[in-house]
Design goal:
45% of the residues lie in helices and 15% in strands. The chain is built from 16 helices and 15 strands. The longest helix is centred in the C-terminal third of the chain and has 20 residues.
């Protein structure tokens, strides 16, 4: 029985899809004005793993992850670069897709972009005006702006636990004559000189960030769907505002279950550009493989803080190498024993709010069993047990590569592979010549390169340490 922590109820709820056997899920994607950072990597990996497990559990999943391709930051960056905003976003969408692929993240079923959703966005804004939940700017200098009236939505603050009176008491924003209330937020921004804009009933302009997701999610999945996810930083105000907009516009419950992954920290400090501890996925990929980053993300439960430290990435590398080394040399069958006790243990872990650290522990228990069977010469039994290991790992997006290739490839440039093979051949020749000193020297040289040699049955295989 799958239980998921619901940010709305603040407890683990038994998951019951709206339509039996089907899951509709929306996750807030990237604002594409820069390269993906480690926080983005966590969102990508976490919700990809959720989708993989739901499908493994037999659900027909429709997964939507949007692209925010118009907002203030995008316009500012495009102006800095003296380029068209669409050229900027196209470049970073491509980079995002490349990073996601390196992390083993499967493409979503739908990937709507804000700029391609203007009719739906404008229609939702008009509906909110017609129903009395939104209004046009109150002063001439804001002509063309449309705001959401938070006081008109009685359940505002339900997701975050914040109350309007408390928010007003803590309000430090200067009075804005264009708004009824300082907490009202923009749905449509009037065009400014030199900025991208679209025609609307209120004049040329562009949407606010929050309305984009409400329009895209309901357009793709309907007014009422199962799961909405994103980073913890989006819970307020973004997701709170989504609920207010969507439910006011449709008159229906927006989402049943809200999931939020925890923050990323760097050496136990919150990651931020101002602290200079900000890492892009591409920077990390120069040192670690995508699967090692994925393992590192999954080694922490998704709601807990994720602390980035080189030692933790090194631990992920060691752990994955151990699992791949277990599969090395085995002809692993495609079919697996669904009744293996490990399968039930794995399901229990994942059914408990996607407890990936416990699920990984099941994989290592299986690896120990496989290695013991190999040592005993029970190769057939080892291969059957390895099939269970590989299948369950694949559910997490792990162990999908060929073991030999994985163990011999490094992060970034693999141009030293030919050099390694040549040194191994020279060592072999030295051993045949009984030149033990030369053989040891070459082994030391390989060791300095981070290469581990294993001599077995007259053959030498190698892997990176």
């Amino acid at each position: 029985m799958l239980k998921i922590h619901n940010s709305l109820t603040r407890k683990k709820d038994v998951f019951k899809p709206i339509e039996p056997g089907k899951v509709k899920m929306y996750v807030c994607g990237m604002t594409v004005y820069d390269l993906c950072h480690l926080g983005h990597a966590r969102v990508l990996v976490v919700f990809d793993t959720v989708v993989r497990y739901l499908r493994y559990s037999g659900y027909d999943v429709t997964y939507v992850r949007n692209i925010t391709d118009i907002d203030d930051k995008i316009i500012a960056r495009a102006n800095e670069n003296a380029e068209d905003f669409s050229a900027l976003t196209k470049r970073f969408v491509q980079a995002m897709h490349e990073d996601a692929a390196e992390l083993g993240v499967l493409p979503p079923d739908e990937e709507p972009a804000a700029t391609a959703s203007m009719p739906e966005i404008i229609n939702m804004v008009q509906t909110l005006i017609d129903k009395g939940f939104a209004y046009t700017a109150k002063s001439e200098d804001g002509a063309g702006d449309v705001y959401y009236d938070v006081s008109a939505f009685k359940d505002y603050g339900r997701l975050s636990g914040k109350k309007l009176e408390d928010l007003r008491a803590g309000e430090r924003v200067a009075v804005d004559e264009r708004k009824d209330d300082p907490l009202d937020f923009v749905l449509w921004k009037a065009a400014k000189p030199g900025e991208p804009s679209w025609d609307s009933p209120w004049g040329k302009g562009r949407p606010g960030w929050h309305i984009e997701c409400s329009a895209m999610s309901t357009c793709c999945l309907g007014n009422h769907f199962d799961i909405h996810g994103g980073g913890q930083d989006l819970q307020f105000p973004h997701h709170e505002n989504e609920i207010a907009q969507s439910e006011a516009a449709t008159g229906e419950t927006f989402v049943n279950l809200w999931m939020h992954n925890g923050f990323v920290r760097i050496d136990d400090e919150k990651m931020s550009k101002s602290l200079g501890n900000f890492f892009t996925v591409r920077e990390i990929l120069k040192l670690y493989k995508g699967e090692e980053i994925r393992y590192f993300v999954l080694a922490s439960q998704y709601r807990s803080p994720l602390n980035y430290a080189d030692q933790l990435l090194d631990n992920a590398r060691t752990a994955l190498s151990r699992l791949y080394n277990t599969l090395r040399g085995l002809d692993v069958p495609a079919d697996y024993d669904e009744n293996d006790p490990a399968v039930e243990k794995f399901k229990q872990a994942m059914d408990d709010d996607f407890n990936t650290p416990e699920a990984l522990a099941v994989l290592f228990d299986l690896a120990n069993q496989v290695n013991r069977l190999k040592d005993e010469g029970a190769d057939d039994a080892a291969m059957q047990k390895a099939a269970v290991l590989k299948k369950l790992a694949n559910v997490l997006g792990l162990l999908e590569a060929d073991p030999e290739h994985y163990l011999q490839s490094g992060a970034g440039d693999d141009s030293d592979a030919e050099k390694i093979e040549a040194l191994i051949a020279a060592r072999k020749q030295a051993r045949e010549n009984k030149d033990w000193a030369e053989a040891d020297r070459i082994r030391d040289e390989l060791d300095a390169l981070g290469i581990v040699l294993e001599d077995k049955d007259g053959k030498t295989v190698w892997r990176r340490s």
